[in-house]
Design goal:
By secondary structure, this protein is an all-alpha fold. It folds into two domains: 32 residues; 33 residues. Helix content is 82%, strand content 0%. It has two helices and no strands. 0% of the residues are buried.
Length: 66
Amino acid sequence: MADLDCQVAFNQEMSALNEISKTSKDILELLKTPESSKSDTLEAKIDETNRLLKLLCIGILGKDKE
């Protein structure tokens, strides 16, 4: 009888652990962001830097090009 109780308790614990594992995997999938290539990221950073420099020049000089 004691063996049966231990088996039932073990199965309940495994069921709970499996549910936690499944939930953790689901959360991880939701948190993953699509990976972009390094060149895309670098190009985006350069474009953003150029945009900000243009805004800075307009703010300081009042014009974007000579």
